[in-house]
Amino acid sequence: MGVSFQQWNVAPFHCTRNVAPFFVTRGTGPWHNRAVVTTEPGSPAPKRRADVARNERALLDAAAEVFATSGVGATVREVAAAAGVGMGTLYRHFPTRADLMVAVYRHQIDACAQAGPTLLAAAPTPFAALLDWIHLFVDFLGTKHGLAKVWQGDDAGYTALHQLFLDRLVPVLADLLEAARRSGEVVADIRAYELIRAVGDLVAWTVRDPNYDVRRIVTLLVTGLRQPQPTRPA
């Protein structure tokens, strides 16, 4: 039985009102370049850093869940409510909607990359780990397609993120494929990059047909790797 990206990536949390000290920024320029200080005297710096890190993780997990259930058109107010923080906290971490989307995308790339070795160690067979990881990847691609909509006019930025996606995830898939080959479960002559592209092309059809069962089609594709394929032309 496969797992979803939402199950893998979004940890359970309780929505509570944000009671952290009031933070202000020091300096000028882009928000991410400003120093964050607190107006509460005597507050230990390590505790402030822990609060900031905890709020950011809660926002990223909440955004991943909200975008997965409501689509990329969900409001940032929904994300803040799901994370249990105020709008001020959200905007201190992510000044624009695009900033939030990009951070979620990077967050999910990291989760996908980390899932590969974990699944390989826990699954009953390397092929089961491969299929579970592909299903996680399918869920992740929904956010990737949505990201393109909020990055209109910044082709260079989107291209850089796409390259990060390839640099991190292709090697993970290559390791899973190699493990399945060593166990004799995968015999098809296919490279990791080719498989990622093939899965991506299949997922792209979901925006055109709401009744399209992409997991079923992708499962058929991956299951076909158990069979030898025609010899590549010279």
Automatic annotation (TrEMBL):
Record key words, sorted? DNA-binding, Transcription, Transcription regulation
Does the keyword section mention Transcription regulation? yes
Q: Which ranges does the entry annotate as DNA-binding region? A: 75-94
Claim: Acetylation is one of the keywords in the record: no
Q: Where is the HTH tetR-type domain?
A: 53-112
UniProt-listed Pfam families:
TetR_C_43, TetR_N
Which terms in the Gene Ontology molecular function aspect does this entry carry?
Answer: DNA-binding transcription factor activity; transcription cis-regulatory region binding
- Domain of life from the UniProt record: Bacteria
Q: What protein am I looking at?
A: TetR family transcriptional regulator
This chain's source organism reads Paractinoplanes ferrugineus
Q: What is the lineage of its organism?
A: Bacteria, Bacillati, Actinomycetota, Actinomycetes, Micromonosporales
